[in-house]
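Consider the tokenized backbone below.
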């Protein structure tokens, strides 16, 4: 399906909910609980490659990846029809237009890459429609279709022009207070810069379905959470994850902890070969007034990098950042971070984040002692009132240096404006 053929379908799918709602007068919950928003996302990305060669484009080394897009993200979610079993429908209409970016600056992740060899280029636009049906009985919900799924063992990436989505089925149950149970299967993957739907894969190796199950229990006034998950990309890998989070007020401070452990290996026919990966990680935070401080440590062991579906986010890792996840084989990394809210200086809506992450003991490229580091900053402002209320502007600036791999200096400017339609 081409991007130009996808646009009319996206617009049609995105308005389907609005067409259904006026005729469903018998289903007050379906209509009254519906929410429709249009997200306008303007994204400029510029990554300059330093010291090492960048990607090869038109027979020469690429000096930078630089593109600029305007995205339209229509998110329409119905409520549930009345009755013992309620039914609903969720629709995502996704469309992005290229504002700037030539053959010599592709591969920013904002746009797909079409063609081969010297003809590789970014299209003028692309998009897709994601539709999911849902049903609810008591406090248990079944969802079937395609959507932006965020789970500890499978996190869709929303770090570029359009979000990644997965196609599958998921059941979520909250029948017991404090306990959420999850289970399901995904069979297709639409990456953030792709209008198509591909089989679930790891490192380009396609598996069968991605099956998962898990649970999270919150107690102690919701201050403490214990989670356990297991996932299998059939015939490729299997992975388990244990997590403990805690938040504790102490006087004028709020202290936090996030501890986690991943254990992964090959599964079934082992199409990607023998795999071995473990991750031990933890972060500690302290918030007082308008300041938040955090330190984190992450250690990998085994011959394999962190196991995750192609294109998905590494956000469950405590040292995942804008430019790197510090998830190479045997890598050990630590992070220091500071966040400041300028509301304390009379400027509500303005925030600043700075972090530094350093990784060592990397086993890659024939080395067992490679190192890398990243310095990342984000200055963000959200308009608090008036006609442009909730419009946000974010400037992200970062540097990454590696013994083995690509050094880079990067700037991103992201403007988001959410319009509430219903």
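A designed sequence for it:
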């Amino acid at each position: 399906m081409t991007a130009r053929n996808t646009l009319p379908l996206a617009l049609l799918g995105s308005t389907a909910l609005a067409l259904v709602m006026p005729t469903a007068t018998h289903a007050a919950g379906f209509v009254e609980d519906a929410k429709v928003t249009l997200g306008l996302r303007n994204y400029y990305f510029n990554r300059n490659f330093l010291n090492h060669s960048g990607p090869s484009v038109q027979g020469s080394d690429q000096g930078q990846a630089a593109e600029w897009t305007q995205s339209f993200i229509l998110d329409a979610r119905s409520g549930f029809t009345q009755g013992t079993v309620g039914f609903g429908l969720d629709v995502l209409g996704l469309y992005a237009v290229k504002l700037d970016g030539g053959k010599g600056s592709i591969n920013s992740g904002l746009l797909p890459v079409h063609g081969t060899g010297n003809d590789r280029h970014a299209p003028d636009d692309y998009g897709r429609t994601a539709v999911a049906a849902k049903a609810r009985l008591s406090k248990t919900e079944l969802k079937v279709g395609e959507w932006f799924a965020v789970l500890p063992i499978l996190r869709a990436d929303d770090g570029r022009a359009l979000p990644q989505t997965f196609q599958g089925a998921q059941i979520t149950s909250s029948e017991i207070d404090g306990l959420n149970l999850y289970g399901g299967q995904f069979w297709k993957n639409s990456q953030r810069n792709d209008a198509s739907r591909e089989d679930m894969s790891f490192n380009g190796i396609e598996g069968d379905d991605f099956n998962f199950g898990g649970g999270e229990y919150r107690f102690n006034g919701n201050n403490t959470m214990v989670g356990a998950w297991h996932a299998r990309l059939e015939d490729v890998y299997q992975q388990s994850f244990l997590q403990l989070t805690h938040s504790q007020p102490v006087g004028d401070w709020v202290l936090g902890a996030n501890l986690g452990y991943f254990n992964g290996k090959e599964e079934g026919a082992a199409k990607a070969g023998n795999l071995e990966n473990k991750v031990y990680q933890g972060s500690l935070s302290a918030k007082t007034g308008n300041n938040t401080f955090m330190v984190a440590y992450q250690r990998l062991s085994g011959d394999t990098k962190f196991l995750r579906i192609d294109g998905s986010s590494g956000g469950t890792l405590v040292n995942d950042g804008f430019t790197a996840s510090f998830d190479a084989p045997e890598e050990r990394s630590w992070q220091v971070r500071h966040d400041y809210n300028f509301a304390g200086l009379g400027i509500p809506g303005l925030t600043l984040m700075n972090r530094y992450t350093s990784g060592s003991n990397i086993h890659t490229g024939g080395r067992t002692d490679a190192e890398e580091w990243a310095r990342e900053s984000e200055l963000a402002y959200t308009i608090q009132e008036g006609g442009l209320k909730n419009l946000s502007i974010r400037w992200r600036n970062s540097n990454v240096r590696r013994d083995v791999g690509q050094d880079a200096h990067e700037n991103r400017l992201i403007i988001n404006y959410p319009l509430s339609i219903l």
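Residues 1-27 have pLDDT under 50 and may be disordered.
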